[in-house]
């Protein structure tokens, strides 16, 4: 499966950004889709996951500020990020997780939060 992410950029603290990701190719048997992020010198971490049934899971650090949504018909997933903080700055990766557990990654999109 191929994942194309977009929507990153520079935003001031307190601002908002919306990331989008479109899946194509072998999209059958994709169970969950989600967003991960990796800041310099840190491990990649899960930000938000949404299952095919719409069940969501968020990292504690983004709960109440980020919202993940999925359009199964269009094979897209989005991440609305509000009240952004400097510590949210990272490269954000879209992910598609198959029933088997196999994960496909998008190319990453940079989010910079700075005044």
Shape: globular
Helical/strand content category: mainly beta
What about the largest sheet?
Answer: 7 strands, mixed
- Helical run tally: 0
In total, the number of strands is 11
Radius of gyration: 13 Å
Could you list the spans in which at least 5 consecutive residues all have pLDDT below 50? Answer: none
Distance between the termini: 37 Å
Can you give the helix content as a percent range?
A: under 10%
Overall mean pLDDT stands at 94
- Run of helices and strands: EEEEEEEEEEE
Strand-residue fraction?
Answer: over 45%
Description:
- This protein is mostly beta strands and 115 residues long.
- The chain is 0% helix and 55% strand.
- The chain is built from no helices and eleven strands.
- The strands form two sheets. Strands 2, 4, 5, 6, 9, 10 and 11 form a seven-stranded mixed β-sheet that branches. Strands 1-3-8-7 form a four-stranded antiparallel β-sheet, with no helix packed on it.
- It is globular and about 40 Å long.
- The N and C termini lie far apart (37 Å).
- The mean pLDDT is 94.
